[in-house]
Every structure is written in C-alpha cells, then in structure tokens.
Amino acid sequence: MNNQNIPQEFKDARFPQTTSEDEIDLRELFKVIWQGKWLIIAITAVFAIGSVIFALSQPNVYKSEALLAPASEEQSGGLSALAGQFGGLASMAGINLGGGGGVDKTQMAIEVMKSRQFASQFIQNHNILPDLMAAEKWNMGDNTITYDSEIYDASANKWVREVKAPFKPKPSMQEAYKEFSKAISVNSAKDTGMVTISVEHLSPSVAQQWVAWLIQDINKVMKERDVAEANRSSEFLNKQIALTNVADIRSILYKLIEEQAKTIMFAEVRDEYVFKTIDPALVPEEKAKPKRALIFVLGTMLGGMLAVMIVLIRHFVRKEG
C-alpha cells in the first residue's frame, strides 16, 4: 500500500510526532533543582553531620569466633554392628544403635546451644546477666566494663531499671534469651561439616571468654545426656537379664550392656565429646561494627535524596497552586 494514499490523520495516529515537551520538562527539572541547590546542600549537610554524630556515638562491638569439627565417634563401630541384629530389642530399652535414623548428634548439639534451656543455664552458671543486659562501654585501659547506671548498680550488685509489670528490675531469662540470641551465632558448613561459633560483645575479652565457655558447656551437656541415657539403658537390660533364662537372649543383652559401658567410658575419658576445636577463639583486636564510614555515606545519600524530593514537591505544589 502506498503511504501517500493514507489520510494525514491516520499517519498522525500511527506515527505520533515527537515534541520538545520531554526535553522542556527535563530542563525545567534541572532548573528547579539548581534553584533549590542551597536548600539541598543544607539538608544534605544536616543529614551528613547527623550520621557522623550517630556513627561516633555507637560503641565498638567486637567479634570472637572459633572453628570446630564434629568429634568422631570411636564407639559407633560396635553399635553399628549390632544395629541390624538387635535394633528392635534395643529400641525397647531406649538405645540408639546408629541404624541410620534419628537426628545427627552434631546437629542436635547445635540446636541445644540455641535452646532457651541451655541459654538460661549458661547465663546463670557463668553469672553473665549484667554483661549481657546492662553493659554500656568497654574501657580499654583496664579492660573493664562500664554498666548503665539506670539499669544496673554495679557497686551494690543490684538491678535498678524501671519497668512495668509483669517485668521486674532484674531481667527475666526470657528477656536475657532474646539478647543472648542476638549476641551468639552458631553455623554449620554444609560442604565440610565444620561448625563456627561466634560471639559479639562490647568487650573483646568477654566475647572470647563466652565462646570458650560455650564450647566447654555444650560438650559437657551432650556428654551428660549420653551417659545418663546409657545408664538408664543398662539398668533396663540388667532387669531383662534377671527375667530370662534363655541363653541366647542373655548373650544378646550382655552385648548390649557392653556397648553401653563403652559409651560411658568413651564419654568419661574425652572432654571434647561432640566438638573438637580446630581454631580456638582469640581476643579480637579490631572491631566488627559499627561500620562508621558506611553509616556516613548512607546517611548523606539519604539526606541528598530527601532534599531533592522536598525541592521538587515544593515546586510542583506551587505550580499547581
């Protein structure tokens, strides 16, 4: 079809002509921004100064971490050999023979560390509630912690914070658990199985000490659990031996008791029961946060964008009016 035969109004509809409106709008936009440059500079400067003050007011937080490897279970060989033959009988006694089911011991230990019960016991056993809930500043010179006087009176060892019921001046374990969960981190690498435990605190020495205590306590807790379970299983098996006269069954029960004895012996002679320390926690020399330069840059950028928006909105409001 010849374009010459197409009416002019159809040409305009199919191929709209470009105008200089977009260009004029863009020029107007830059003109408005330029006219409001002093307001933009002022607002941006206020945000920049504010971000600097905020960044400098934030205390340094130090991070200490340790790299752990799951401890190999030397006693698992004998248990695995018995799993296929006596799994049913063992389950009656509450014995896990490692038949492939159940939760991995390493993963269980990680979840135990994240539990409220473990955190509460850890806080109470090591008396770290003031360091967790009331620490305000770390004094590098004498390696001491200054506490918030509105929360905790260190000289009288007394909690003085003002709270509404049902809360009390002394923080509850539920409150402490929330702060504790923010301070610690436990991660397991899927490819290597290595476990990293880290703690963040105002004091680098406190952070390092907590990591060491966490490793020590989780090994102790998991050891005590396995020993208690093995003792209960042995008691059950001894009762079953007394109730039967069948030689083959008695032989099986004696083998199961032997494996429980090995479990107890293995636990008693080994301090690093669940986790072996590959890279122990050190007292960090450099802070982990805050990132003061990043806070300054983001604060300044936010101020600049907000200032431009204010200038444009003010212009268009006046224009519409």
Automatic annotation (TrEMBL):
<dbReference type="GO" id="GO:0005886">
    <property type="term" value="C:plasma membrane"/>
</dbReference>
<feature type="transmembrane region" description="Helical">
    <location>
        <begin position="293"/>
        <end position="317"/>
    </location>
</feature>
<feature type="transmembrane region" description="Helical">
    <location>
        <begin position="38"/>
        <end position="56"/>
    </location>
</feature>
<dbReference type="GO" id="GO:0004713">
    <property type="term" value="F:protein tyrosine kinase activity"/>
</dbReference>
<feature type="domain" description="Tyrosine-protein kinase G-rich">
    <location>
        <begin position="276"/>
        <end position="315"/>
    </location>
</feature>
<dbReference type="InterPro" id="IPR050445">
    <property type="entry name" value="Bact_polysacc_biosynth/exp"/>
</dbReference>
<keyword id="KW-0472">Membrane</keyword>
<keyword id="KW-1133">Transmembrane helix</keyword>
<protein>
    <submittedName>
        <fullName>Lipopolysaccharide biosynthesis protein</fullName>
    </submittedName>
</protein>
<dbReference type="Pfam" id="PF13807">
    <property type="entry name" value="GNVR"/>
</dbReference>
<feature type="domain" description="Polysaccharide chain length determinant N-terminal">
    <location>
        <begin position="22"/>
        <end position="125"/>
    </location>
</feature>
<dbReference type="Pfam" id="PF02706">
    <property type="entry name" value="Wzz"/>
</dbReference>
<dbReference type="InterPro" id="IPR032807">
    <property type="entry name" value="GNVR"/>
</dbReference>
<keyword id="KW-0812">Transmembrane</keyword>
<dbReference type="InterPro" id="IPR003856">
    <property type="entry name" value="LPS_length_determ_N"/>
</dbReference>
<keyword id="KW-1003">Cell membrane</keyword>
